[in-house]
Design brief:
Layout (H helix, E strand, L loop, with lengths): L11 H18 L4 H4 L44 E2 L4 E5 L20 E3 L3 E2 L12 E8 L11 E6 L5 E6 L2 E7 L5 E4 L8 E8 L28 E2 L3 E6 L2 E11 L7 E11 L5 E9 L2 E10 L3 E11 L13 E9 L2 E9 L4 E3 L5 E3 L2 E2 L2 E5 L13 H14 L3 E3 L6 H10 L2 E5 L7 H4 L2 H18 L5 E8 L7 H17 L4 E8 L8 H4 L3 E6 L19 H11 L4 E6 L4 E3 L7 E2 H16 L4 E6 L5 E2 L15 E2 L12 H10 L3
Parallel strand pairs: 23-24, 23-32, 24-25, 25-26, 26-27, 27-28, 28-29, 29-32, 30-31
Antiparallel strand pairs: 1-12, 2-3, 2-5, 4-11, 5-10, 6-9, 6-12, 7-8, 7-10, 13-14, 14-17, 15-16, 15-18, 18-19, 20-21, 21-22, 33-34
Helix pairs in contact: 6-7, 10-11
Length: about 650
């Protein structure tokens, strides 16, 4: 009997047209034998490699120059920010000819198509998962002010996947790697009148990237650890700077006991864009009250971090499901010019006991929740407000008290979790890098930089309680990995000494005898799939559910004093069938229930995070341990891609004690 499901949230004509398009492309590429489409005809030979058909040449769109919008989706930041939404243009560049043909200098719009940002060029692809590059273009006019007091405009890109190169009026002005952390570029060279901002986004990955490298059948480049979404996945802002700029503010509150006053440290990065050194006065307001002042000299065309301290004598604590927040504004002034930055923070105490128990405001955590992965059938990883709202609503319905992802979440998502009182295990996008690459100093420097960018952006968020420096590096900790762990932990603690520093590791029977590098951390994330995947040691039999408890005991003994969290556990499910059969809904429900019970039977396990909240795309050949998979989808989610909760969702909701 077929399982009844709720209808897809997308219209029937959209789903049918998308299915026809996918089948047509798959047939053209030889991924599906012709006999599948026409049972009466002879099967066609398969192509050796999947090659996407050349896209049709789009008609030349009209030239539109929209004004930046005086609104933001992120509360934290400078008051003068403008959202660079409106009309953008996009041009696919599978052949990688955009640089020699000077797409960044092209004046006409021939070959471009009109879009809006955020945008992924392969958002609805379920066949190729190709590595490629694309070009984004925005026409803009910005006021420059009088010549002697000229305004410097700064563009902030919240996330470009994966490598970005930025051009202004044909001249390169910046570059960045990493799709989930922001970067900024000075718009020097702006003209009075129309200007052309161009971004080249590339997902052409190599085997020295900071993620698991899967060989691709398109262009010969790797595709990363999951679906290789490409493009401007997050928003773009611009802001005016007059002499000085408050680039960022990090707020780090500390309390010695649950009833003690809070001592708050505000780290403010002030930039001087002028040609001479300036003395800058800093004023910190908590609500309407001035709570701290300081001053310092900032060199010409330089930046300096100024540190302020203040005390909240009777703080309202940030708690689970009660996310009390304090609003804070920092103002910098010099020579009659001011710049400001607004943020929010919460006061809570995170403390680890000698036995590895972690306390939040004096109480043991005992967390439960799910990991989030940004993948939507229509917009891909280019989530907008509706996708974030849907994920937040499902997490709340599930009763989650903790959330995790393989990369830093969107700032608007973190702000919502702050207000809702949900904790976040935040992880740098360093995933399954092999030891041979970790031996390379440049790879380690890139991994440390990924951690630095994560912490600097997000350290004011009270929801974040742990920084995970990497995920699923080799189970045998070699010298390259050990060096990276030590360097990343040292840098994270320098930037934020108030939170746990952690790493997530695959855990299977016989796989972890205790590493000195891991013992030096505060917490260990345990990714466990006992009874689903095989053993970590070649020649040993497959793991069973019964192996899980003893292995958790072994880890606790191997890492005394290190806080243990189960950061992944999950089983694929895509069909109705008996509980004993892998891949069925009943198997997933039983498997998750049994594993959660084992976690909870160990008092040293501080929390359990299901992998994952919702099904997502990985690779065209993905199997995931399921005897009857549906590639490219990883179907360990509690919710199907169409938004329908699986039976395991409701069972986890019951066991989580959702209100």
């Amino acid at each position: 009997m077929a399982r009844l499901t709720n209808p897809s949230p997308y219209p029937l004509h959209m789903r049918l047209s998308h299915l026809v398009a996918v089948l047509t492309v798959a047939l053209a590429a030889g991924l599906v034998p012709a006999a599948v489409a026409d049972p009466g005809g002879p099967p066609a030979p398969r192509a050796r490699a999947a090659q996407a058909p050349a896209p049709p040449v789009p008609p030349t769109p009209p030239l539109v120059v929209d004004r930046p919008e005086a609104r933001t989706l992120i509360r934290e930041g400078q008051p003068g920010r403008l959202l660079l939404g409106g009309t953008w243009y996009f041009r696919q560049d599978d052949e990688r000819v955009g640089t020699p043909r000077r797409f960044a200098r092209q004046r006409s719009l021939q070959g471009w198509q009109q879009i809006t940002v955020p945008h992924n060029w392969n958002a609805q692809d379920t066949v190729f998962n190709r590595s490629s590059q694309g070009w984004y273009r925005r026409e803009l006019r910005l006021p420059l002010g009088p010549r002697k007091r000229r305004i410097l405009w700064v563009a902030r890109f919240e996330g470009v996947s994966h490598h970005a190169t930025v051009y202004l009026n044909g001249r390169e002005i910046g570059h960045h790697s990493g799709g989930s952390t922001p970067f900024e570029a000075d718009l020097r060279g702006l003209r009075r009148g129309r200007n052309r901002l161009v971004v080249r986004a590339s997902t052409l990955r190599g085997n020295t990237d900071l993620t698991h490298w899967r060989p691709a059948s398109f262009n010969g480049f790797g595709t990363g650890g999951w679906w290789n979404f490409g493009g401007m996945s997050r928003e773009v802002y611009v802001r005016p700077v007059r002499r000085i700029d408050v680039e960022r503010v990090g707020v780090l509150p500390r309390i010695r006991c649950t009833r003690c006053p809070a001592r708050v440290e505000a780290r403010t990065l002030v930039r001087n864009t002028g040609r001479k050194a300036r003395r800058v006065s800093l004023q910190v307001r908590l609500g309407k009250e001035v709570v701290a002042t300081s001053a310092g000299e900032v060199g010409a065309r330089d930046s300096r971090e100024l540190v302020s301290h203040f005390t909240i004598r009777h703080p309202k604590r940030w708690r689970l499901r009660r996310g009390h927040m304090y609003g804070l504004e920092v103002t910098a002034a010099t020579d009659g010019t001011e710049a400001a930055y607004r943020t929010a923070f919460g006061v809570r105490q995170i403390r680890k006991l000698p036995d590895g128990t972690v306390l939040l405001n004096g109480r043991a955590m005992r967390l439960h929740g799910a990991s989030v992965h940004e993948d939507d059938p229509v917009v891909g990883a280019a989530w907008r407000t509706p996708q974030r709202r849907e994920a937040l609503a499902r997490l709340q319905e599930l009763g989650a008290t903790v959330v995790r992802a393989h990369y830093p979440l969107h700032p608007a998502m973190l702000e919502a979790l702050d207000r809702r009182g949900v904790l976040v295990w935040s992880q740098a996008a360093v995933y399954q890098v092999p030891e041979a690459n970790l031996l390379r100093p440049q790879v380690r420097r890139n991994a440390v930089r990924a951690n630095t960018e994560m912490v600097l952006r997000d350290r004011s968020h009270p929801s974040i309680f742990a920084w995970s420096v990497a995920n699923e590096l080799p189970e045998l900790v070699g010298s390259g990995q050990a060096t990276l762990i030590a360097a990343a932990a040292r840098e994270v603690r320098r930037l934020d000494p108030t939170r746990l520093v952690a790493i997530d590791r695959s855990t299977r029977a016989g796989g972890d005898e205790g590493s000195p590098a891991v013992r030096a951390l505060d917490a260990l994330g345990v990714n466990e799939y006992f009874g689903w995947y095989g053993s970590a040691v070649q020649g040993l039999p497959n793991t069973t559910d019964a192996d899980l408890g003893p292995e958790l005991d072994h880890l606790h003994a191997s890492y005394p004093g290190v806080a243990l969290f189960v950061t992944e556990f999950g089983a694929e499910a895509n069909r109705v069938g008996p509980e004993s059969e892998k891949g069925t809904f009943d198997f997933q429900t039983r498997w998750l229930r049994d594993h959660l019970a084992i976690h909870r039977s160990r008092p040293f396990v501080n929390g359990s995070i299901v992998w994952a909240l919702k099904d997502f795309r990985v690779h065209p050949t993905w199997g995931g341990g399921n005897p009857a998979p549906t590639p490219p989808y990883n179907e360990k989610g509690l919710i199907e891609q169409n938004g329908q909760p699986k039976p395991a969702f409701w069972e986890m909701r019951r066991l989580f004690g959702a209100p």
